[in-house]
Write a structure and sequence with these properties.
The protein has 415 residues and is α+β, with helices and mostly antiparallel strands. The chain is built from 18 helices and nine strands. The protein has three domains: 115 residues, no CATH class; 77 residues, Recoverin, domain 1 (Orthogonal Bundle), CATH 1.10.238.10; 108 residues, no CATH class. The strands form three sheets. The protein has a five-stranded mixed beta sheet with strand order 5-4-3-6-9, covered by helices on one side. The protein is globular.
Length: 415
């Protein structure tokens, strides 16, 4: 088995390509020995497994060009696609067997999981040869995203298999399996298959065009040069735009909760676009993320029932709103509000008439003028959880009081 060591070499290659340099050799031309080496690579690469091939593609420009041949990836993608289909079918089977043994609330949650498994199967049933992007720099991303989706399906199926209606209850944190899976389905559908609503037509790698703001897209391409980057590199890029009072490690923990959960050390243009659409523009992203995620009001993954229970606990005397993840639309956020005059709770998502996300600050000012942010926030333990199983094993939701006590809310961050 060929072992590939690429530590430190990837940055050298990226720097060389950004500066316009060609591969080694006089005048940038391929020498006879280089051509011979390329032939060796073409002979060896078909025998590498997926992980080794992905690492090899990052060693140098020549290795990347040899590793991006479509034939090398088609077999891997087809095999992983079949794994996804089987995992989706197994998840649906296990959930179906559980439904008769649980009460109405748990059946509703299992039903959401079953629906998401069906969506995953629909995505997997698309023939990659007709719908996936052609290989380009970082082409292994398609295979990696399909592998990630396969793992999430398998984890959800394993979690469903552990449920025993006689001794285990489905807690609110169980929803993390459905949310992580729904995010993976959306990412695969956007990054691997052309969807005109999500990816505009244009020259170059269409996966870079997922970033709709041209300025942010140019900055991403200049920094990373591919439709993905490592999470640590992404954080380093954003930290220069953070408010000076913000603790960098806490920002990284909560950012991982938003874009790199379960932890995969991967940020794609799709995930970056979700952040931009909610907290953009780029120059204000760090400031707004800190205001609305690290501060009061954001409670992460709680369902509508738990959101209403939180209002019962705080008994607000003024109009109040809390923010949470949307289970059905992972690119959006859900807003649960309490009208003090009518004593009524309502739920909304920050989508316009076309279903596109409205930036959080704009949506709050438009829909909830004069409302206060609820005095709750995400527990730091939630932000540091690295896997769905670690997150789901707690009985209680990862919600804690922030600053003001129950019944006291905070003004909206933009006011």
């Amino acid at each position: 088995m060929l072992k590939v060591s690429h530590a430190g070499e990837e940055q050298t290659w990226r720097s060389r390509t950004r500066e316009g340099g060609g591969p080694p050799g006089p005048g940038g031309a391929e020498s006879p020995s280089a051509c011979e080496a390329a032939g060796v690579l073409e002979a060896v690469f078909p025998f590498l497994d997926l992980r080794s091939l992905a690492r090899a593609s990052q060693v140098s420009l020549r290795w990347q060009e040899a590793a991006q041949e479509e034939a090398l990836w088609s077999d891997h993608c087809e095999r992983i696609r079949e794994e996804c289909r089987q995992a989706a079918g197994e998840l649906a089977r296990r959930v179906g067997a559980l439904l008769p043994h649980f009460g109405r609330g748990s059946r509703e949650r299992l039903g959401f999981l079953s629906e998401t498994a069906a969506l995953a199967r629909d995505v997997c049933d698309k023939q990659l040869s007709g719908g996936a992007w052609r290989p380009s720099p970082g082409a292994w991303l398609s295979a990696r995203l399909m592998r990630s989706l396969s793992r999430r399906l398998a984890e959800a199926a394993r979690a469903a298999g552990r449920l025993d209606h006689s001794s285990h209850a489905i807690t609110v944190n169980f929803d993390i399996f459905e949310l992580a899976l729904r995010r993976g389905v959306g990412e695969v559908a956007t990054m691997l298959f052309r969807k005109k609503a999500a990816v505009p037509e244009g020259p170059g790698d269409p996966r870079l065009a997922v970033i709709r703001d041209a300025g942010a897209r140019d900055l991403w391409q200049e920094r990373f040069g591919a439709p993905w980057c490592r999470f640590a590199d992404f954080c380093g890029w954003l930290e220069g735009r953070l408010p000076p009072f913000l603790e960098p490690q806490r920002f990284r923990d909560f950012l991982a909760y938003f874009v790199d959960f379960p932890r995969e050390d991967l940020v794609t243009t799709y995930r970056f676009q979700v952040l931009l659409s909610l907290f953009g523009p780029l120059d204000l992203l760090g400031q707004r993320f800190a205001a609305y995620v690290l501060g009061r009001g954001f409670v992460g993954l709680v369902n509508t029932v738990k959101a209403e229970e939180l209002f019962c606990e705080m008994r607000p005397s003024a109009d109040t709103v809390l923010i949470r993840f949307s289970r059905q639309e992972p690119e959006l956020l859900a807003f649960t509000s309490f009208d003090a005059a009518l004593r009524r709770v309502e739920h909304r998502r920050n989508a316009d008439r076309n279903g596109a996300p409205i930036p959080i600050e704009t949506f709050l000012k438009r829909q909830y003028p004069g409302y206060l942010l609820a005095p709750y926030g995400i527990d730091d333990l939630a932000a540091r959880a690295e896997s769905t199983f670690v997150y789901a094993e707690r009985d209680n939701p990862y919600v804690s009081a922030r600053g003001a006590g129950a019944g006291r809310a905070a003004p909206l961050a933009g006011e």
